[in-house]
Specification:
With 346 residues, the chain is α/β, with parallel strands linked by helices. It has helices spanning 49-52, 71-74, 88-100, 111-118, 145-161, 176-186, 189-212, 235-241, 280-307, 318-335, 339-342, and strands at residues 2-10, 19-28, 57-58, 66-67, 165-174, 219-226, 248-252, 256-262, 266-273.
Amino acid sequence: MTYLIGIDEAGYGPNLGPLCIGATAWKVESIVGPFPKDSGQGAATLPNLYETLSDIVTQTASEGKVAIADSKQLYKPASHAKGSAGLKHLELGVLSALRASGSEGKTPTNVEEFFAATSADPANHRAGIPWYQEANERLPIDAKPQAVDQVACRLRRVLEETNIKLCEMQSRLVYPEEFNTLVEKYETKGAALSHVTLALVRGVIDALGNSNGAGDSPTRYSIVCDKHGGRNRYAALLQHHFPEDWIETEVESRGESRYRWQSETRQATISFRSKGESFLPAALASMIAKYHRELAMRSFNAFWQKQVPGIKPTAGYPQDAKRFKAEIVEKQRELGIDDRVLWRSR
């Protein structure tokens, strides 16, 4: 059996709010021939799910199909884009995919259910953060529930017809206090991102192995991640998270860094690419991460607007984050909220 796995993040740059990482895993028909290697053009040859699922999936928002693409293409804040659809396209893609996936097959109706469906906060860090304690907004927010249901039914049918299964939709949210601790431990925010990402990759692979068992031939995993900043070398990080395997380097370049490892039970390749969202599993991962990020910032802003009436909401990016922090500083002090809970150091 073969699994295609995509990983991407949202919220790496801001000072406020969580870093969010998404992951999806798709089971496809076994790849015929040798395990994918370099195509001769600097990239591994992988099945194109956009072509296979073209009856229902598109890379741009359109009526009658579900858009799965880089989340930055599908979501524009209403204040930045006239006629913005808000969270509609993220919700149509993410919530319909959850319903059509191999999980419980139901659409989350609130934030808590969405967290549970994507295993987003296994240590329940958000329970100790004031702005999330009573935040359980109903979902979807901008999409119509009937539209989500219709898309989910069509997506499930096309997946069945093409013998493809969406097996895993996971995420990992890293809130400021944990983020700061990880940066201190690993010395850079890029290294912190890489370690959390590869821990999620390991968790997804382990979950797939546990749920599907061993077959007569090795299980194949093709994994695509977006590049982590300017990093080109990942072998040591991979070896840390897969200590029982020997990591082989295939290529390390600005465009792509690719590695492989194999044993009697599994064969794996992982690529870190610029614009990794062109790979459908990574695009949906991007959408999961972005949806979590936007839901988190809605709760964050709602809390502070209640505490400081009239304050303008923030997306959490550096310049505006400084403005926002200056405007809440007195109330923050009054509430006894430590900076490490609120502010990401890098």
